From TrEMBL:
Protein name as it appears in the record: N-terminal acetyltransferase A, auxiliary subunit
Record keyword Transmembrane helix present: no
One Pfam family matching this protein: NatA_aux_su
Positions with biased composition (Acidic residues): 578-587
Alphabetized UniProt keyword annotations: Repeat, TPR repeat, Transferase
Keyword Repeat: yes
Bias-annotated ranges (Basic and acidic residues): 599-613
Domain of life: Eukaryota
SUPFAM superfamilies the record matches: TPR-like (SSF48452)
Stretches the record annotates as Disordered: 576-617
Organism: Linnemannia elongata AG-77
GO molecular function: transferase activity
Length: 848
């Protein structure tokens, strides 16, 4: 409104109101009216740019806003609008700079301060957030949200005691307290109590809880906190009563049972026979009180040992088999970490099977005849049990017998598919899951499982056909619906399937989809920074913020990042795509045949893509026609479809390692405690010849797990890289000085002697029976001197034959990894290994 006559100033106010009401076209017309008379009015130019932005004309938006700033550099409105423009493009750092600049010209502007604080929370600039919220609090001390925001800022900074002071001061200013429980005030009081809990003064927190109890709506939260505080204060009798009160509300809550056990002084790590007898007696009484509680029946199995375990597990397993509970094995497989319990369960289940075959009961007395389904569920349980032990033939025997008994039960085919998957026969596993799917075509879960198994069998065409059965039918390309619904499992499994088939571009396209999903999750929190303060959902809000801070450590993202880094590393190592992993060790004739097969596959994929476009165009035209729309336009849009189905833009990138870093950096910020983060970092930095960053990655990995198998191999490769740089005289003295300073942390007493370092590793890990460590040692031996150490490396790998040491530790995955390692060595003993591995895993397709 600077330098405008009253008529235009009023019109400018209307423009601002149009923006608030999202009436962008009307506001745009108003801005044009002002600019006809005052074409150089900076604030109107900026607002016109903002309207352009909401009309999806980005270039014009930036042009007009920058023009507005040039004409009025000292207008807080111009700088605020520039910040809003950057914020809409998710460029939060530049937006925050613009807001800060705006505040130079209007230090007490409430809206700009609020917008700045939102950006500071989104970027986790918590110190700045607290400072900004303090300014808002001083300007509007009567506003509850500003008090709460300051408290939350202090809590997230790790200073909950200051948050307590802020809330105490605010509560002292309240005059008219609600006479009946009010939800928002209730949440504020519970949040205050949570801060007291984080401070660690449980007596004060308990006293506060007693004070606020009548004003709190969430009665369950009050009871849970009281029980927790009694336990923390050592007031065990009161804690016991509190937990028993909670169990009456929910007798299947595991945490309540654990709290009750602790209040009775039971359930610790060191359990005596007397403790065991007491805890089993406690659960016996609880089972009488809550006969329908599954937790009261299941938990005694965790604490019982010896004959007592046999007795309680016998009762539990019989009742579950009698009822026909499919999840029985899942419920008790956590007990299998104790080999004695595993053996006891196996003995019981085999006994049931023999008895059911002879007398139709769980024992040979014949006194009780079990329902016919008891035999079915016993066979199902035994199949899962032996699959867990990786005794495939026995597992298949039991599941096939169960299928003969009841050939229409979906769970049996799913179990068979899982057994075949673990045995390495992904094609047969896919067939079993497809049979399960066809038994119940309305079940989305089974459809999803079947799709996943198809992808693991690298049958992409069938997987896509199956997946779209439960997507929207009214869109041209149903597969896009999976992306819109953020179906991460599909993107991940499809990407890994593409990677196995050497389709790097397609794989990267899938992994970038997952990266986008996680970026969306991060962006989606923005609106909650204001919503949660307004609605007073404070405990849930803090929980969400903390979840977002470690969101990238989710297994889906870590897997996608590892796979994407692997793809980009492969592109860096072999930029022309020649000599791919599948072609290693092939003769020239075999390579020629392989390339010909790849070309045919690519041609077939192109033809299928064209057919899909035609079908999509026809579907879109038909749908548009029915809806009364433009059929030709809809068909044209559908034909356009995916302009890069092969992911060429990813494979043709100029800096593969730079792209790999984009996946790694979020993990370095938000999943710094995972060793996978630093192992990936090393692979990137060592190739970029960033030796100090590679050193930093190694040091962080050592802090997390100094005994990690992959870490040992990376240490050897790092030392070899340093030796090579020193020989070539390319190692800068300053870099060498830093590396020398940390050398002993990496290699201990062995110094520069890599052979001695590797020998020490072999000696240290020889009794672990770890196949991964043997592979790492063999790889390291080979890397130290490939020309001399091949035989020694082969001997190390073949030591895995030792049944006594490795019989229980060998898995299909690490046996295949040994095979790939021998292939990398170009060893003459590859077929010998394949023959031995085929005996251990006769169903594995990869070993045939």
């Amino acid at each position: 409104m600077r330098d405008l006559p009253s008529k235009e100033a009023n019109l400018f106010r209307e423009i601002l109101k149009c923006y608030e009401l999202k009436q962008y076209k009307r506001g745009f017309k108003g801005a044009d009216q002002i600019l006809k008379k005052f074409p150089e009015h900076g604030e109107t130019l900026a607002m016109k740019g903002l309207f352009y932005n909401h009309l999806d004309k980005k270039e014009l938006a930036y042009e007009f806003v920058k023009k507005g700033i040039r004409h009025d550099m000292k207008s807080h409105i111009c700088w605020h609008v520039f910040g809003l423009l950057y914020r809409s493009d998710k460029n939060y750092e530049e937006a925050a700079k613009c807001y800060a600049h705006a505040l130079k010209y209007d230090k007490e502007n409430i809206q700009i301060l609020r917008d700045l604080s939102l950006l500071q929370m989104q970027m986790r600039n918590l110190e700045g957030y607290v400072d900004t919220r303090h300014i808002l609090l001083e300007l509007r001390p009567q506003n509850r949200q500003y008090w709460v925001a300051v408290a939350i800022g202090y809590q997230l900074l790790g200073k909950p005691e200051l948050g307590v002071k802020v809330l105490t001061t605010y509560e002292e200013t309240l005059k008219d307290l609600p006479s009946t429980p009010d939800y928002e005030h209730s949440e504020l009081l519970l949040y205050h109590n949570t801060l007291l809990e984080e401070v660690g003064d449980f007596q004060v927190a308990l006293d506060h809880l007693d004070t606020i109890e009548k004003q709190v709506c969430d009665r369950k939260a009050i009871k849970e906190k009281r029980a927790k505080y009694f336990l923390a204060l050592g007031r065990l009798t009161e804690a016991e009563a509190a937990y028993r009160d909670l169990l009456a509300l929910n007798p299947d809550n595991m945490a309540y049972f654990e709290g009750l056990g602790k209040s009775l002084g039971l359930g610790g790590d060191r359990q005596t026979d007397e403790d065991e007898a007491k805890i089993l007696e406690m659960f016996k009484q609880l089972q009488k009180e809550y006969p329908r509680s599954n937790a009261a029946k299941r938990l005694p199995l965790r604490y019982a040992t010896g004959e007592a375990f046999v007795k309680v597990s016998d009762e539990y397993i019989r009742s579950m088999l009698r009822k026909g509970v499919p999840s029985l094995f899942v419920n008790i497989k956590t007990l299998y970490t104790d080999s004695a319990k595993q053996a006891a369960v196996e003995k019981l289940a085999l006994g049931y099977l023999v008895a059911l075959d002879k007398s139709k009961g769980f024992d040979h007395s014949g006194a009780v005849v079990e329902p016919p389904t008891a035999l079915l569920w016993t066979l199902y349980f035994l199949a899962q049990h032996f699959d867990f032990k990786r005794e495939t033939e026995q597992a298949l025997g039991y599941i096939n017998r169960a299928i003969e008994h009841t050939p229409t039960l979906v769970e049996l085919y799913m179990a068979k598919g899982r057994i075949l998957k673990h045995a390495g026969d992904h094609v047969a596993a896919m067939g079993a899951l497809n049979e399960a799917r066809e038994l119940d075509l309305q079940d989305r879960f089974i459809n999803t499982k079947c799709t996943k198994y198809m992808l693991r069998a690298d049958n992409m065409a069938e997987a896509e056909k199956t997946a779209v059965l439960f997507t929207r039918a009214d869109i041209p390309n149903p597969l896009n619906d999976l992306v819109d619904m953020q179906t991460q499992w599909f993107s991940l499994e499809a990407g890994e399937s593409n990677l196995r088939q050497g389709q790097i571009g397609r794989a990267l396209k899938r992994f970038h989809q997952i990266d986008k999903h996680f970026n969306d999750y991060t962006e989606d929190q923005f609106d909650f920074h204001t919503y949660c303060l307004r609605k007073m959902t404070l405990r849930a809000y803090v929980s969400m913020v903390r979840l977002e801070d470690q969101l990238r450590s989710h297994p889906y993202y870590v897997r996608a990042a590892q796979d994407a880094v692997q793809c980009y590393v492969r592109l860096f190592d072999k930029p022309d795509g020649s000599e791919s992993e599948e072609m290693e060790g092939m003769t020239e004739a075999e390579k020629k045949k392989f390339r010909s097969k790849q070309r045919k596959a690519e041609l077939k994929a192109q033809q299928e893509a064209e057919e899909k476009k035609k079908k999509a165009a026809a579907t879109a035209a038909e749908t548009a026609k029915k809806a009364g729309g433009n059929a030709a336009a809809a068909a044209a849009a559908a034909v356009k479809g995916d302009e890069d189905p092969e992911g060429t833009k990813y494979t043709k990138c100029e800096d593969p390692l730079g792209e790999a870093l984009k996946f790694l950096q979020p993990l370095q910020q938000l999943a710094d405690t995972r060793i996978e983060t630093h192992l990936m970092a090393f692979e990137i930095y060592i190739r970029k010849n960033k030796l100090l960053l590679a050193l930093k990655a190694l040091l962080k990995s050592i802090k997390i797990d100094a005994n990690h198998a992959t870490l040992h191999e990376q240490l050897v490769r790092f030392a070899l890289a340093i030796q090579k740089s020193s020989s070539a005289k390319t190692l800068k003295p300053s870099v060498k000085a830093v590396i020398d300073k940390h050398w002993s942390e990496l290699y201990g007493i062995h110094g520069q002697d890599l052979s001695a370092f590797n020998a020490g590793f072999i000696e240290k890990t020889k009794d672990q029976g770890s196949v991964a460590h043997v592979i790492s040692a063999a790889m390291s031996v080979y890397l130290i001197d490939p020309s001399k150490n091949l035989t020694k490396a082969e001997e190390l790998l073949f030591s895995i034959e030792d049944e006594k040491k490795f019989g229980q530790k060998r898995t299909l995955e690490n046996v295949i990894l040994v095979q790939k390692t021998l292939k990398g060595f170009k060893s003459a003993r590859q077929q010998e290994w394949k023959a031995k591995a085929g005996v251990w895993f006769p169903n594995a397709v990869a070993l045939k």
